Amino acid sequence: MFNGNKLVVILPIFLMAFMFFGGWFYLQQSDVISNEDLYEHVELEAQLEENSTQQLDVSWEWRETPEEGLVGEDYIGISVIDEDEQPLLSEEIEEASLQLFDGEDVIYETEGEEVENGIIFSFPNELEENVTYGNEGHINMTITGSAESASVSYLHTWVEHDGLESEDARFFSPSFAGQDEENVSWVIERFVEAGEVSGGQGTGTP
User: In Å, how far are 34, 41, 59, 69, 149 from 66, measured between CA atoms?
Assistant: First the structure.
């Protein structure tokens, strides 16, 4: 009787072994990246609609996990520019919100903080109970003023700190409270004109 059903016993064992070694081989073949090189693997896209009430949509995603792990806070700065090449005032921006995702689930929401040349959003960059925060998100902004273009700057850090000290939505010279180390961040920037989409992978400033 056993001989007649040995295939039923052996097949599940074979499949388990195949899955184990297949997963091990995949991990061995996967590229190991650092936080410093992560900007090469980030997809960052911005779209600015050309309507009377405009929508700016920003999305980003990265799937690789840096070998050092995820630490610290990340930031996205948005500067919306009018026809005179000046940043729009806060009263000309009706709504600005950020959401982080785990698959289709929203796991974090926040609003931006106004600075002189735009709005800065801060959000966690961490792994908690097998849920990754910061690797996938979306920003929606409703604009009542007349926007000609917008710049989107994504600032990634990989050290514990007490917050961003500089108030510049372009992150030209970022500094962090409680942190004296250098080379602990990079910036990716996208420019988008009204009625256009701008996006792609990489092109950061380590």
Answer: 5, 11, 20, 5, 33
Q: How far is CA 137 from CA 25, 80, 118, 121, 160, in A?
A: 30, 19, 19, 12, 21
What ranges in the chain are assigned the alpha helix state H? 6-29
Q: Which of 93, 84, 157, 138 is nearest to 119 (CA)?
A: 93
Number of C-beta neighbours around residue 201 at 10 A? 15
Instruction: Using alpha carbons, select from 180, 176, 179, 123 the residue that is nearest to residue 154.
Output: 123
DSSP state of 129: T
Q: Which residue has the tokens 């899955």?
A: 19
Which tens digits make up the pLDDT trace of 105-164? 999 999 999 999 999 999 999 989 889 999 999 999 999 888 999 999 999 999 989 999
Residues 66-97 have pLDDT tens digits of 998 888 899 999 999 998 999 988 888 888 99
| Confidence (pTM) | 0.80
Segments of the chain assigned E as strands = 43-48, 54-61, 73-81, 93-102, 105-111, 113-115, 118-124, 126-128, 131-133, 136-143, 149-157, 185-193, 196-201, 204-205
Sequence-distant (≥ 6) Cβ neighbours of residue 154 within 8 angstroms: 42, 44, 60, 74, 75, 76, 187, 188, 189
- Residues 131 and 107 sit within 8 Å (Cβ to Cβ): yes
